[in-house]
Amino acid sequence: MSHTVLICDDAIFMRTMLSDILQQAGFDVVGEAETGAQAVNKYRDLRPDLVTMDIVMPDMGGIDAVREITRDDPTAKVLMCSAMGQQALVVEAIQAGAKDFVVKPFQPSRVLEAVQRVLG
Amino acid sequence: MDSARYRELFLTEARDHLVSINQSLIALEQSPPSTVRGGESVNELFRAVHTVKGMSAVMGYDSVAALSHAMESLLARVRAGEQPLEPAHLGLLFDAADALESAIESSSVQADAGPASALDVTSLVDRLQGRSGSASSATPLSTLPTVRRRPPPGSGGVVVSVSLEPGTILPGARAQLVVARARTLGAVLGASPDEVALLADDFDGQLALRVATEADDATIARTIQGAGSVATVAIARDPDRSDACENAPDAASDPSSTRLADLPPGADRSLLADASERFEAAWGNEVLKAPLQRYVRIDLRRLDHLMSLVGELMIVRGSLAQRASAHADPMLDDVVTEASRLVGALQDGVLGARMVPVWQVFDRFPRVVRDAARTLGKDVEFVVEGREIELDRSLLEQVADPLVHLLRNAVDHGIEPPAARVASGKPPTGRLTLSASRERSAVVIRVADDGRGVDRDRVLRTAQAQGVVDAEREALDDDEILRVISRAGFSTADRVTDLSGRGVGIDAVLSRIRALGGTVELRTGPGTGTSFSLRLPVTLAVIPALMARVGDEAYALPLTHVTETLQLTRGLVRTVRGRDVIVIRGEVLPLLHLRDVVGCARGDAATSHVVLLRVADRTAGLVVDQLLGREEIVVKPFDAVRGAATCFNGATIQGDGSAALILEVSSLL
Asked: What is the DSSP string of B118-164?
């Protein structure tokens, strides 16, 4: 059975791209969220194997969402999606429980490597 | 990474962000960033720029990414309070927003053009960076000397020395992952450099940890490698004689090392506090909380397709009702009635889905007005009212250009320069209002200024000089003024400015609005200002129409233009200078024959009717053979062959499946 993924990003463009990368690699994208709050709710409903999480999002950012998700489920596997120049935020996200990160612009191979590391 | 699909998504989304960038900039110009509102604007601006940066980097649109990155850096500094936002910065950001717009548009067109599309943002980027100081220019990793780490402080445990791959992105964050991984093996007793130093720009990717673990070397190495971008892992079992770590004179007193007690994972206050302090300082919490909207983006073509399916369904409904009525079966009638009700509800629903609030277009206008006012040296306060009023999306898009023209026109010709306003006892700042309101089945969009008003005498003189108005006329009323200034090529502007006054203005506005089935009204008073009111149907997809027959064909006359119908009797028609006219209540109106219009011989029809049609202030009679009644018709886009009759602007399909052409009334008159 393929791994299930929840994609969280406020830009539909990013969600589409990530979704394509992951689906082509055989993952099952079971949900998308546009805000941190949505991500937390959807995580509770869907219990995906993996979450990709943007950092800057409206209505609860990615870091708070990671904190909430890992509080509910300490084994949650969250992969942060960051832009250049957000190192402090990425570190905070890791402190909050994120398992790995990728930096935009995404290269499909980088994304998949990080996903494998997180799931492995 | 580039395909038409992503490009389209990128473009739509990036354009939305551009609108919000411009809005925030205008808000900032009006209230300094130190105020609460200004702070929100900086945050919104940052968010929009940041998102554009991320998307364009993925698409490989380097110039867009470079520009938005430079904008973002400047904004970050402003938000952190490291840099006041001066008017010069705003000007620069406005320029950057424009450049960003053209970079976005051109990048998506010539995605493969490479250097060509990347050429002229560099000077702007330099300027943005010049203003924003050089604090952010980090030295590239590769030029840093590679030194091996001091051993971590403390004693006991296993010393794990890790070097990250050269060129690792965000090495500090990657190192943090190494620490987090190490923590799964056991308590981390010490780290060098300390976790704060990991975040510094000069972190070189070398770190050493002291870990209290029972795991074997292979497990340690595998676990650490799992953090990613790890080049080498060296493990030293004897902490007192660490050969993995050179240059270790006095680890205990090394101020850059921190002893981390056996804190549980996730509880390293030092690093966490630092990171969040930096973040709070830089952005505060509010940056993460943008207003939430519950919208789904839909391609307009899908809505058009749905609408056309609903149209087909309405036609089927019509013929179903016709056939059912021939059967006199009450059960069948019930089913048909229920089906009709549902189709009606479906039609309302789809039409509703096509409706969008006018702000989706109006929000572009503050920038238009600002730019026009700046160029012309006017002070203009721009007020938008009725932003939430809804209009069919395709209609709204088509009124955007006419509105831009009217707004620029108002700034250029309506509102006086500040000195002139003060001289005539007005406040120096002019007021320009754009409002939308719902009036029965129409939406009225009004552009009103408090400027000098149209110069009636000059319009009259020009009109007389052009022979449009009798020489003996002494005054023109508002409707006549509109008719005169909307004649193609008419202009009273003394000078031709960049913005308006080329004489191609009002006539283009009027013909566009009329083609949409709307009307335009002008009101103007000397010294008190001018207003243009555009009255538009709420939707173009379904319109009420009067169906009329000529020969064997049916035609649809949009009801918005029909004022009256009457039976044609011999005595009504007169001939003046070889033309048919009709006299209604003492008024002589031109009379057209639909048979002539559609190229059908004027036979002796058994009965004839006259339909009185009105567009703005022009009225004419149209002779048809027979009136078939009023119907709600579904308008089908009409692909007229070039050179074909221009008096039709669409077609509809009737209950019996036959087509009827829709007359474009304004072209007839």
From this structure: GSTTHHHHHHHHHHT-STT-PPPGGGSPP-PPPPPSS-SSEEEEEEE
**Segment among A15-24, B52-61, B239-248, B442-451 with least mean pLDDT:** B239-248
Residues of A in contact with B9 (CB under 8 A): 12-13, 16
Query: Which architecture does CATH list for A4-119?
Result: 3-Layer(aba) Sandwich (3.40)
Cα B369 from chain centroid?
16
Report domain extents, chain A: 4-119
Residue B328's pLDDT band, with cuts at 50, 70 and 90, is confident
Question: Chain A: nearest CA to B177, how far in angstroms?
Answer: 7
Residue B37 has pLDDT above 60, yes or no: no
Size of interface A-B (CB pairs under 8 A): 126
Q: What are phi and psi of B495, to 5 degrees?
A: -115, 150
pLDDT at position B90 is 84
What gap in Å lies between CA B518 and CA B510, rounded to an integer? 9
Q: Which domains does chain B have, with CATH numbers?
A: 4-131 (1.20.120.160), 141-273 (3.30.70.1110), 300-357 (1.10.287), 359-537 (3.30.565.10), 542-668 (2.40.50.180)
B299 vs B326, which has greater pLDDT?
B326
Q: In what order do the strands lie in the sheet with B579-584?
A: B562-567, B609-615, B618-624, B587-593, B579-584, B573-576
Residue B176 and residue A95: Cβ atoms within 8 Å? yes
d(CA A105, CA B282): 23
**Residue of chain B whose Cα is closest to the Cα of A119:** B226
Which among B551, B542, B548, B549 has a CA at the least distance from the CA of B630?
A: B548
Helix (H, G, I), strand (E, B) or coil at B548: strand
Which has more pLDDT, B332 or B638? B332
Mutate to test the interface with A, among B203, B292, B293, B296 (most CBs of A within 10 A): B292
User: How distant is the Cα of A47 from the closest Cα of chain B, in angstroms?
Assistant: 22
Taking an 8 Å cut-off on Cβ atoms, the answer to whether A60 and B289 are in contact is yes
Q: Sign of dihedral through CA atoms B242, B244, B245, B249?
A: positive
Scanning A13-72 for CB atoms below 8 A from B yields 13-14, 16-17, 35-36, 56-61, 63-64
Q: Which of B176, B178, B283 to mutate to test the interface with A (most CBs of A within 10 A)?
A: B176
What is the predicted pLDDT for the residue at B172?
A: 85
Nearest-Cα residue of chain A relative to residue B138? A85
Residue B205, phi-psi category: left (phi > 0), alpha (psi -120 to 50), beta (remainder): left
Residue B565's SS3 state is: strand
Q: Burial level of B454, CB count in 10 A (0-12/13-18/19+)?
A: buried
Across the range B370-376, mean pLDDT stands at 88
Q: Please report which confidence band the pLDDT of residue A52 belongs to, taking 50, 70 and 90 as the band edges.
A: very high
Which of A11, A92, A103 lies at the smallest CB-CB distance from B170? Answer: A103
Which residue of chain A is at minimal alpha-carbon distance from B272?
A: A92
Nearest chain A Cα distance for residue B224, angstroms: 11
Q: Per the CB < 8 Å rule, is B58 touching A17?
A: yes
pTM over 0.90: no
pLDDT at residue B579 tops 70 = yes
The candidate with the shortest Cα–Cα distance to A8, out of A61, A44, A49, is: A61
ipTM of the complex: 0.83
Per-residue pLDDT averaged across B365-380, rounded? 89
pLDDT at A98: 93
Residue found under tokens 């070889």: B578
Tell me which chain B residue has its CA closest to the CA of residue A16.
Answer: B6
Cβ of A91 within 8 Å of Cβ of B198? The answer is yes
**A101 near A80, Cβ under 8 Å?**
yes
Query: What is the pLDDT, as a whole number, of residue B296?
Result: 67
How many whole angstroms separate alpha carbon B332 and alpha carbon B328? 8
